[in-house]
From TrEMBL:
Belongs to the major facilitator superfamily. Monocarboxylate porter (TC 2.A.1.13) family. InterPro entries: MFS (IPR011701), MFS_trans_sf (IPR036259), Proton-linked_MCT (IPR050327). Keywords: Cell membrane, Membrane, Transmembrane, Transmembrane helix. It is a multi-pass membrane protein. One of its GO terms (molecular function) is L-tryptophan transmembrane transporter activity. Signal peptide: none annotated. Sodium- and proton-independent thyroid hormones and aromatic acids transporter. Mediates both uptake and efflux of 3,5,3'-triiodothyronine (T3) and 3,5,3',5'-tetraiodothyronine (T4) with high affinity, suggesting a role in the homeostasis of thyroid hormone levels. Plays an important role in homeostasis of aromatic amino acids. Its main location: membrane. Gene3D superfamilies: MFS general substrate transporter like domains. This is Monocarboxylate transporter 10. It catalyses: L-tyrosine(in) = L-tyrosine(out); L-thyroxine(out) = L-thyroxine(in); L-tryptophan(in) = L-tryptophan(out); L-phenylalanine(in) = L-phenylalanine(out).
Length: 382
């Protein structure tokens, strides 16, 4: 379990580094490199039975490779779509559920038939295919301004310290944090995802403990995955119809509803009620996931979208990883999952309220810019 958690955490922790590679060497090369690393990690995991070795081969190699392969798929869509970016993102994200929903059952069946080692080899074959699929990522937008001017400055004109600082700023571009709206948005999402994985990790255990239901508990992850896929398709189309940063209100609604549904779990008196809540949780997940990339493009523009998405996912890494162990601690302390689900519901509601401020701040900044430009025109000599 800890090996899998490490792999999931590495996907988010590596995101800021992935954004640097995406800007410097492009989406195609970054995704192909990541798929190759993930392929090596899965294949090497099949040749060892040592848990310590798998911490490296699966937890680190496969996790890092997956991060490098995944993030460029969000960025490359902005090269091809603008007016219907939300729909394109929804189709891509929703289609992944066609694989992710039946995959656990397939892996369970394959694992019983051929064993864990050969199952890793089957998964590595999928990552090998991903290497060739990533070759279709043909970038259209020009490289960033920073990469275009890399060689224009003379090294001898500045001190060694200034050159080192310039190189650090060139690769770790923090320009997106100068935008107030991006800072608020990133902080709001990082707050909201603190308890985000709690239903995914603890809901089946809660049902087994509260209702002694072990034969039909497989329905819960299927409902979550299926409704998440539907939510991704629907939210992408709806997001295209909403102008500008007002798309954020979709995230606000999804986070607030997600938090309320988490708090409703302890109130359920039957397994069927938990299924209904799972349907809503999956729908909220689909809305949040799909609309994230279009909002990043609206906030910082296509040239800095890779950095914006990378830093955001990096900020999400710690709260997303910490939420599940905290919920487990509540279960151990109180003897039930009630406090864990109440805890999981608070951060999404708080984060959603923070996100609701972003369009208002953006509107106020636009009004201030109009006033300043009007004053400049009045003071300009005729």
């Amino acid at each position: 379990a800890w090996v899998g958690s490490l792999a999931m955490g590495m996907i988010f922790f590596c995101s800021p580094i992935v954004s640097i590679f995406t800007d410097r060497i492009g989406c195609r090369t970054t995704a192909a490199l990541g798929a190759a690393i993930a392929f090596i990690g899965l294949l090497s995991s099949s040749f060892t039975k040592s848990l310590e070795v798998r911490y490296f081969t699966y937890g680190i190699l496969f996790g890092c490779g997956s991060s490098f392969a995944f993030q460029p798929s969000l960025v490359i869509l902005g090269h091809y779509f603008k007016r219907r970016l939300g729909l394109a993102n929804g189709i891509v994200a929703g289609s992944s559920c066609l694989i992710s929903v039946p995959l656990p059952f397939f892996l369970k069946m394959v694992g019983k038939a051929i064993g864990l080692a050969h199952t890793f080899q089957v998964l590595s074959a999928l990552m090998l295919i991903q290497i060739f699929l990533s070759m279709t990522y043909r970038p259209i937008l020009p490289p960033s301004c920073d990469s275009q001017h890399d060689g224009q400055e003379k090294p001898g004109s500045r001190s060694l310290r200034q050159q080192c600082w310039s190189q650090m700023r060139k690769y770790f571009n923090l320009r997106v944090f100068r935008r107030k709206t991006y800072r608020i948005w990133a902080f709001g999402i990082a707050t909201a995802v603190l308890g985000y994985f709690v239903p995914y990790m603890h809901l089946v255990k809660y049902v087994e403990k509260e209702f002694k239901e072990t034969k039909k508990d497989w329905i819960l992850p299927v409902c979550l995955g299926a409704m998440s896929g539907l939510g991704r398709l629907v939210s992408g189309r709806i997001g295209d119809c909403i102008p500008g940063l007002k798309k954020i209100y979709l995230q606000v609604a999804s986070f607030v509803l997600f938090g309320i549904m988490c708090m409703m779990v302890p109130q359920c008196r039957g397994f069927e009620a938990v299924i209904v809540i799972c349907l809503f949780l999956g729908l909220c997940d689909g809305f949040f996931t799909t609309i994230m990339a279009p909002i990043a493009f609206e906030l910082v523009g296509p040239m800095q979208a890779s950095q914006a998405i990378g830093y955001l996912m990096g900020l999400m890494a710690v709260p997303m990883t910490a939420g599940t162990p905290i919920a487990g601690y509540f279960n151990d302390y109180f003897g039930n999952y009630h406090a864990a689900f109440y805890f999981a519901g608070v951060p999404p509601i708080v984060g959603g309220l923070v996100l609701s401020v972003v369009p208002l701040v953006h509107q106020r900044m636009l009004q201030k810019q109009r006033l300043d430009s009007g004053k400049d025109k009045m003071l300009a000599p005729e």
